[in-house]
Write a structure and sequence with these properties.
The protein has 445 residues and is an alpha/beta fold. 34% of the residues lie in helices and 26% in strands. The strands form four sheets. A six-stranded parallel sheet has the order 3-2-1-4-5-6, sandwiched between helices. Strands 14-13-12-15-16-17 form a six-stranded parallel sheet, sandwiched between helices.
């Protein structure tokens, strides 16, 4: 497949890197330094130019292109790119936008603006925050099979009850599969005798009940259903959408916004959220408003520095769990190293969502882990699949290392995979894969 990516920033570069191995990728950007950088770092064709210009798109080979991804930082620019591409040929177009209002408009009319698929950065980031907030200690959470199957990644702290245990000892839940351990950046496929070390990241797949039970065992903190106090700091669009999603869950968060006009607007738009007009970097305010008693503090201010400061202040006064929005991907590790529990990068979240959409059609859902070191796929077993009619034990013998079958659903029922389980056409199977074997395994599945 030939793909043109417009915009060589963090989003565009991540998308191009994810697609370059399997597709013919062209990247277009107006910044000469970005073009030069991506030319030497990725196996793609990089072109300096304006993606809204017909001549630039023609130079990029739009006539023979299957997919155009508009991923610049400008909403209007991305929409114009898609519309321009449609005037030349009929590639599938994907636009990245920040404003949910554009997404709402697009949803009301099929293929509005010449866009076939639209990803809203602010809304998708808010959805990611709410999923993570709902599972204590989780760094990443995804659902599969219409919500029957959950995948989550947890860091094992030195004081964790499973630190030093074998996988067999830690596996105390009936429908849970230990899919992988991420250790020092490497993917380890565990056996029952594998010892879980402090600072490992553990990836588990199973029913929502089992994954939540494991989370509670790992980190004794309230789940979303039990959370009494949720504090969102910052009335940005991400903060607004996060509060709105919490309200949809039946919760009543508090939101702190410094600007009086914005605070008033938020209060009018969020009927079940208590909006407080104040500076959340004022520790006296935090103590006075009993923020220390909250279950989670989510920092969604307009700068990484402010989000880091608020998160660390919250930790200092005794908040159990903090989530901070980080605009620059290189700061994610810094945030989590100095004490922020989870750092969410909107650009990475958006790039992963777009990459997920471009996967093979037979893949029902994809979760990308650890900057594309591993993936979790949901597939439907077809007639030509190596899975159809075979026992898991026999199938695994024919597959390369780095593959784990984490869960199966059949006719809306969850089946915990065992060696003797026979797979059938129409089953939905959730599979963990090391990306090094992704291509080889995809051809078989």
């Amino acid at each position: 497949m030939r793909v043109i990516v417009i915009g060589a920033g963090e989003v565009g570069s991540n998308i191009a890197e994810s697609l370059a191995d399997d597709h013919d990728v062209v990247v277009v950007d107006r910044d000469a330094e970005r073009v030069e950088s991506i030319t030497y770092s990725l196996d793609v064709l990089a072109i300096e130019g304006d993606g809204t210009d017909l001549e630039t798109l023609e130079e990029a080979g739009i006539e023979k292109t299957d997919l155009v991804i508009a991923s610049t930082d400008g909403d209007e620019t991305n929409i114009v790119v898609c519309g321009t591409a449609k005037t030349i040929d009929d590639p599938f177009t994907i636009a990245r936008v920040k404003r949910p209002t554009l997404l709402r408009t697009w949803e009301r009319s099929e293929e509005a603006f010449g866009v076939d698929f639209m990803v809203c950065t602010d809304l998708h980031t808010a959805e990611t925050i709410v999923r993570i907030a709902g599972l204590p200690g989780a760094h990443d959470v995804e659902t599969f099979a219409n919500g029957l199957v959950h995948m989550a990644e947890f860091e094992v702290r030195p004081d964790s009850p499973i630190a030093g245990e074998t996988v067999s000892e830690a596996d105390r839940f009936e429908s849970l599969t230990f899919a992988a351990i991420i250790r020092n950046g490497d993917v380890v496929i565990p056996t029952g005798e594998t010892v879980i070390d402090p600072h490992d990241n553990v990836v588990v797949i199973g029913s929502s009940v089992s994954v939540r039970g494991f989370a509670s065992d790992l980190t004794p903190a309230p789940t979303l259903e039990d959370a009494d106090e949720i504090v969102i700091v910052g009335g940005s669009e991400i903060g607004l959408q996060t509060a709105r999603l919490f309200e949809a869950e039946g919760l009543s968060p508090r939101l702190v916004e410094r600007d009086p006009d914005r605070a008033r607007e938020l209060a009018e738009r969020l009927p079940n959220t208590l909006v407080l007009e104040s500076d959340a970097t004022d520790i006296d305010f935090l103590v006075r408003e009993h923020v220390d008693e909250s279950d989670i503090v989510i920092a969604t201010l307009d700068s990484d520095e402010k989000n880091l400061l608020v998160s660390l202040l919250a930790k200092r006064i005794g908040v159990e769990r903090t989530v901070g929005v980080v605009e620059y991907g290189e700061y994610v590790e810094l945030f989590e190293t100095v004490g922020v529990d989870v750092a969410v990068n909107p650009r990475v979240v958006t790039a992963e969502e777009i990459t997920r959409f471009t996967r093979e059609e037979k893949t029902e859902n994809v979760a990308i882990l650890e900057s594309d070191r591993a993936e979790v796929l949901e597939i439907e077993v077809g007639d030509d699949s190596v899975l159809d009619g075979n026992r898991i034990r026999d199938v695994m013998a024919d597959l390369p290392d780095g593959v784990v079958i984490g869960a199966i659903t059949r006719d809306g029922e969850l089946i915990t995979p065992r060696g003797e389980t026979v797979l059938h056409r129409g089953d939905h199977v959730v599979i963990f894969l090391d990306t090094e074997v992704l291509d080889a395994v995809s051809k078989l599945l």
